[in-house]
Structures are given as structure tokens and as C-alpha cells.
């Protein structure tokens, strides 16, 4: 039986980096069938819908999805796509690769971002010409579900625990609930869960990245803090992500459409290729996933490199070098 993978390039550099990652997936020994689907600004302009029903249905029915990026329509695309796969956690590893000129080469931290609520739950209103409001949602059930995933994640890696980023001294009800729920689950499992104020975390991470391994975050904080970590390891071109659900998942680079370089063929495909490696591992192709990780690591160490990493190679050059190492 083949494994069904939906591929959505989206907009901007998504149209360049996703085909690169698909080439890599085609090169490994996995019995995948690829279905190409549309979402984003371009399909909105064509059809009036940023996320056509057939794309949503295909993602729901597939075994996994590889997604690039969406531009102005990001909120209408990414959030429903995460919902389509039932994702409750966005796993975002930020790791400095050997040979890459990173601000903080010691950085090796994984963000486990709550993926269904917080300010992303979308209860935003324009109440008058002067006033807009946003309702933040935090439930014990979603926080505990994330915490159970975090516990499994660290136990599988023989780690003692994780940190929990929050701002419970100000948002006592919402972040207080989040922190207490996550810490409670960890303690019941005999794991350490140290709370850290997210503003203090933003200061401490650049000063001492080695102080953090796995950080459990509310939704928006996970988005922002992982981008901060991207700045420490060499940029957004290096950060992959996995949106994990109970029986489906969607993989995407952390970066967006990068309109400043879109269409030039120089986007760094590493984040998307490593997202594809995470897809392989998620579907049980551990050896192939490890091989893709190693190939990307080798290319980042020895070149060729795209301009974001100080090189002058194209997306195609980097992809060809990864394929050669596989
Ligand atoms: N790779 C997906 C993408 O388009 N990322 C940019 C973005 O706006 N992300 C927001 C989020 O991850 O919640």
C-alpha cells in the first residue's frame, strides 16, 4: 500500500523550495504517491478561495502533507490546514549546523508550540473606528494534551524534562492556566518542568543558548520565540517544522513567502528539505529521514550555500548537492 502525500507549494519561495524537497522525497526509498494541491494568494486570485475545499479534503484524507508558504492569505490557509490534520503541536527545532556562520553556534533547542488556541484561536473583532479586540483562548485540555506530547518527546530522548515559557505574572488566567496544566502533567509523570517568563527567556536564550533544550510554549510565543532562535542559528532558511496530529501531520518550513527573493531561484531549501526529513521519520522511515538530515548537514558544512548563508548558490545547486550525498 502506498503512502499518500499532499504537496502544497503555496506562494512566493514556497514554489521553489517545495519542489526541491519533493525531489529529495522522490529520491529516497519510500513508497509515496504525491498529490499536488493549491492554496494561498495565487489560487485566491484565480478562484476566489485561498484554501479550496478539494485541497482541505485532500489534506484530511492524506497520510501527511508538505506545505510551503502562504502570503497575505496565511491566516486563511495555515490555520485551517493545521486544523485539517488535527494538529495540536507544532514542533520547531532550531539547531546551529556545523560550518554555518551562526550568531550562537551552541544553539540546539526544540520549541513545542501549542497549535490550536491562544491568540491564534481567531476571536478578533473591530468594534469601532477606534477599537479592535482579541479574545485569547486557553483550555486545560489543550494545554495538558501538549504537555503529554512534551513528556513523550523528552522521555523518548532520555531527557529529564523541559521548560515552559509563559507570562503568567501578567496573563494570570490564561498563561497561568497553561503553565499550571503543563507543569502538572510533567510532575505527574516524574519529569522536571521549569516555568520561565517568556520575556526573560528572550533575553536568556541569546546570552546562553545551552540553558535550553526543549521549550513548551503557548501558540504565539512559540511562533515568535522560534523566530528569535532562527536568528541565532543562521536565519529562517534553516528552521523546519512539523504540525503533529493524532493520525495525520503537516510539515512546513518556519519561514514565509520571502517576497524580496521570490522568483530568483536563490531561496534556501534546507528548512523545507529538513521538514521532509521530519515527515519521513514521522511516517516510520527513520533511516531515510536520518540520511536526508545527514545530507543537508553535509551540504551546509561544505557548501554550496545560498546567499542567506553567505554563498552564491541557487536553490537548484543546493538541492543537487543534497541529492548527490543521498
Ligand atoms: N511556512 C508557513 C508560513 O507561511 N509561515 C509564515 C507564517 O506566517 N507563519 C505563521 C505561523 O506559523 O503561525
UniProtKB/TrEMBL annotation:
GO biological process: isocitrate metabolic process; tricarboxylic acid cycle
Keyword check for Metal-binding: no
Organism domain of life: Archaea
Cited SUPFAM superfamilies: Isocitrate/Isopropylmalate dehydrogenase-like
InterPro entries assigned: IsoPropMal-DH-like_dom
Pfam families: Iso_dh
Isopropylmalate dehydrogenase-like domain sequence ranges: 4-322
Record Gene3D superfamilies: Isopropylmalate Dehydrogenase
Keywords annotated in UniProt: Oxidoreductase
One GO MF term: isocitrate dehydrogenase (NAD+) activity
Family as reported in the entry's similarity comment: Belongs to the isocitrate and isopropylmalate dehydrogenases family.
Protein name per UniProt: NAD-dependent isocitrate dehydrogenase
Organism, as annotated: Haloglomus irregulare
Amino acid at each position: 500500500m502506498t503512502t499518500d502525500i499532499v504537496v502544497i507549494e503555496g506562494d512566493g519561495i514556497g514554489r521553489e523550495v517545495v519542489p526541491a524537497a519533493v525531489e529529495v522525497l522522490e529520491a529516497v526509498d519510500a513508497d509515496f504517491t504525491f498529490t499536488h494541491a493549491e492554496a494561498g494568494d495565487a489560487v485566491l486570485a484565480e478562484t476566489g478561495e485561498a484554501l479550496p475545499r478539494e485541497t482541505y479534503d485532500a489534506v484530511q484524507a492524506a497520510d501527511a502533507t508538505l506545505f510551503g508558504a502562504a502570503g497575505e492569505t496565511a491566516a486563511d490557509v495555515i490555520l485551517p490546514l493545521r486544523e485539517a490534520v488535527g494538529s495540536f503541536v507544532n514542533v520547531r527545532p532550531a539547531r546551529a549546523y556545523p560550518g554555518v556562520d551562526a550568531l550562537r553556534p551552541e544553539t540546539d533547542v526544540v520549541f513545542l508550540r501549542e497549535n490550536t488556541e491562544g491568540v491564534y484561536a481567531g476571536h478578533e473583532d473591530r468594534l469601532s473606528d477606534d477599537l479592535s479586540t482579541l479574545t485569547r483562548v486557553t483550555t486545560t485540555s489543550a494545554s495538558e494534551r501538549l504537555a503529554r506530547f512534551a513528556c513523550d518527546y523528552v522521555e523518548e530522548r532520555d531527557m529529564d524534562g523541559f521548560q515552559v515559557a509563559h507570562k503568567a505574572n501578567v496573563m494570570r488566567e490564561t498563561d497561568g492556566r497553561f503553565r499550571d496544566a503543563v507543569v502538572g502533567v510533567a510532575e505527574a509523570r516524574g519529569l522536571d518542568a521549569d516555568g520561565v517568563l517568556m520575556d526573560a527567556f528572550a533575553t536568556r536564550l541569546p546570552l546562553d543558548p545551552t540553558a535550553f533544550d526543549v521549550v513548551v510554549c503557548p501558540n504565539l510565543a512559540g511562533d515568535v520565540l522560534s523566530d528569535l532562535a532562527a536568528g541565532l542559528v543562521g536565519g529562517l532558511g534553516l528552521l523546519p517544522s512539523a504540525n503533529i496530529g493524532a493520525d495525520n501531520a503537516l510539515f512546513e518550513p518556519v519561514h514565509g513567502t520571502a517576497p524580496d527573493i521570490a522568483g530568483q531561484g536563490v531561496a534556501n531549501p534546507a528548512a523545507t528539505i529538513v521538514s521532509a526529513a521530519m515527515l519521513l521519520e514521522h511516517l516510520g522511515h527513520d533511516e531515510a529521514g536520518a540520511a536526508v538530515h545527514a545530507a543537508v548537514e553535509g551540504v551546509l558544512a561544505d557548501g554550496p550555500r545560498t546567499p542567506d548563508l553567505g554563498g552564491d548558490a541557487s536553490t537548484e545547486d543546493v538541492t543537487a548537492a543534497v541529492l548527490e550525498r543521498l
